[in-house]
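> call design_seq(struct)
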């Protein structure tokens, strides 16, 4: 199962005791379901636990029995549709949450959220109905999706009163209220009661940070190795040119020693070469000697070019 699926299972598993909180949870699920109007009250989900909780909310709040249908989908989870089709039942449910069957624009009714605890349970219900969380191993993205523009604005403003302000965009005609920062997502999960998922997200972030750091170190080491190999190849070329045209004896004793050492150990770094000399030398000192060897080789190249 996906990270988002497991998160919803965690949220569904917690029992809500306080009556106000149960009401707020139900309101979040109903308001952000597929339909919340005088014609239809419904939810469509791939999570069986979410479907069961939605039906339970309708039963507890209105004493009504909803209809649940299951539609199998090839190579995917089944689709659960929970609904009330009777207009009288729909009107009754809407009235419990201060809504009218003939409302043109769906808006958030704050009368249903008397305290901050109710806000947390409302957001839990909203997430269960219309939320999604991307696999944090791939990217950080938590969102609420609704077809109602004003309702999306209300949700954005409500979240901003208790957590960091989320952003909003339009995707295929729907309004999306979302977070992309891992810290903000962690705060949201904690706020709506998904402590296990919040901790798991933190662990994923730590793992990714460590992996990225290790990759940076590896890339840096690889770059340094390539740089050392390229420089060593040029030094060997210079030394062999000098040996072929003037002989090693043309170099001073200190340069001869370094030249022989480089030919014997083409893989060594400058620092390692310096430690192997009869009189140990610093990396910069070794580099300076190679510059003198390079200058001697360049003189030979110029002389050959003039012939």
């Amino acid at each position: 199962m996906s990270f988002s699926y497991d998160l919803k299972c965690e949220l569904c598993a917690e029992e809500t005791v306080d009556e106000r909180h149960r009401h707020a949870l139900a309101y979040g699920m109903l308001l952000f379901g597929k339909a919340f109007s005088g014609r239809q009250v419904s939810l469509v989900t791939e999570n069986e636990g979410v479907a069961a909780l939605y039906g339970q909310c309708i039963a507890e709040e209105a004493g009504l029995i909803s209809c649940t249908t299951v539609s199998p989908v090839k190579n995917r989870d089944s689709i659960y549709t929970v609904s009330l089709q009777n207009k009288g039942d729909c009107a009754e449910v809407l009235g419990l949450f201060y809504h009218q069957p003939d409302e043109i624009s769906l808006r958030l009714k704050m009368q249903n959220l008397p305290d901050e605890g109710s806000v947390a349970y409302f957001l839990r219900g909203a997430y269960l109905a219309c939320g999604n969380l991307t696999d944090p191993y791939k990217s950080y993205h938590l969102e609420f999706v609704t077809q109602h523009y004003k309702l999306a604005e209300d949700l954005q403003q409500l979240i901003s009163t208790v957590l960091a302000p989320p952003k909003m965009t339009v995707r295929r005609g729907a309004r999306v209220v979302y977070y992309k920062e891992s810290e903000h997502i962690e705060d949201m999960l904690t706020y709506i009661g998904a402590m296990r998922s919040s901790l798991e997200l933190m662990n994923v972030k730590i793992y990714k940070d460590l992996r990225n750091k290790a990759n940076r170190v590896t890339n840096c080491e690889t770059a340094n190795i390539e740089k050392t190999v390229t420089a060593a190849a040029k030094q060997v070329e210079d030394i062999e040119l000098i040996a072929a045209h003037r002989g090693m004896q043309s170099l001073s004793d200190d340069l001869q020693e370094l030249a022989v050492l480089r030919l014997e150990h083409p893989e060594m770094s400058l620092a390692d070469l310096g430690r192997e000399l009869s009189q140990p030398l610093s990396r910069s000192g070794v580099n300076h000697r190679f510059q003198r060897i390079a200058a001697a080789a360049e003189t030979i190249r110029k002389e050959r070019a003039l012939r």
